[in-house]
Specification:
Oligomer: single chain
Distance between the termini: 27 Å
CATH topology: Molybdenum Cofactor Biosythetic Enzyme, Chain A
Largest sheet: 6 strands, mixed
Number of helices: 5
Strand content: 15-25%
Structural class: alpha/beta
Shape: globular
CATH class: Alpha Beta
Length: 186
C-alpha cells in the first residue's frame, strides 16, 4: 500500500515500522466493579473480566468493588493508574443512564486521549443481544496519563451485566490490551 508519495505502509513490509513492536507480552489489570450492592463473592461481571484476562495468560493485580460514587470511582482509577505494576484498568458497572450511574463522568474526566472506537465497537457487538436498547449503553475507553512521567494506561468502562462484561472483555479489551498498553508507554 502506498501513501501517494511512493512510501509503503503495509504491515510487515520490509523496512517499515512494526505496528505491534511495542506490544506487551503480558499485562496486569486492575478490575473495579462499580456497585453499592455487590460484593466480591457475588460479582459475576468482575468474575467475567478476571476470567477473560487470566484465560489469555494475563494477571489481575487489583480487584475491588467500588461504591458507585463519583469520587470513589475517580479515586480508584487514579490509584490504579499511579501503580506502576498496573498496565490496564477495567471498570464494570455505572455506565447506564440513572442518576447513580457516574462511572463514565468520573473516569472520562481523567482521559488524556479518548478511544472512541471502543464504545462504537462495543455497541455494535451488543446490538445483537439488546437491540435498540444499545442507545443507553455508555461504554467508553481512553488513555489516562500516569502522575509521574509520560506513560499512559488504557482504561475501559464496561456495563455491569455479566454478559456485557464478558463480551467486552473477551471480544475487545483483552485482545487489544497488550497492544494499547504498549503504545501508551514511551
Amino acid at each position: 500500500m502506498s501513501d501517494g508519495h511512493g512510501h509503503g505502509h503495509e504491515h510487515g513490509e520490509s523496512g517499515t515500522h512494526d505496528h505491534h513492536g511495542h506490544d506487551l507480552d503480558r499485562v496486569t489489570a486492575a478490575v473495579f466493579t462499580v456497585s453499592s450492592s455487590r460484593t466480591l463473592t457475588d460479582d459475576a461481571a468482575g468474575d467475567a473480566v478476571q476470567s477473560a484476562f487470566e484465560g489469555a495468560g494475563h494477571t489481575v493485580g487489583t480487584r475491588e468493588v467500588v461504591d458507585d460514587d463519583f469520587e470513589n470511582v475517580r479515586s480508584a482509577v487514579e490509584s490504579a493508574v499511579a501503580d506502576e505494576s498496573i498496565d490496564v484498568v477495567v471498570t464494570t458497572g455505572g455506565t447506564g443512564v440513572t442518576p447513580d450511574d457516574v462511572t463514565v463522568e468520573a473516569t472520562a474526566i481523567l482521559f488524556d486521549k479518548e478511544l472512541a472506537g471502543f464504545g462504537e465497537l462495543f455497541r455494535t457487538l451488543s446490538r445483537e443481544e439488546v437491540g435498540t436498547r444499545v442507545v443507553g449503553t455508555r461504554a467508553v475507553a481512553g488513555i489516562v496519563q500516569r502522575p509521574e512521567g509520560e506513560d499512559g494506561v488504557p482504561v475501559f468502562c464496561l456495563p455491569g451485566s455479566e454478559n456485557a462484561a464478558r463480551l467486552g472483555s473477551e471480544e475487545i479489551v483483552v485482545p487489544e490490551a497488550s497492544h494499547l498498553a504498549g503504545l501508551a508507554r514511551r
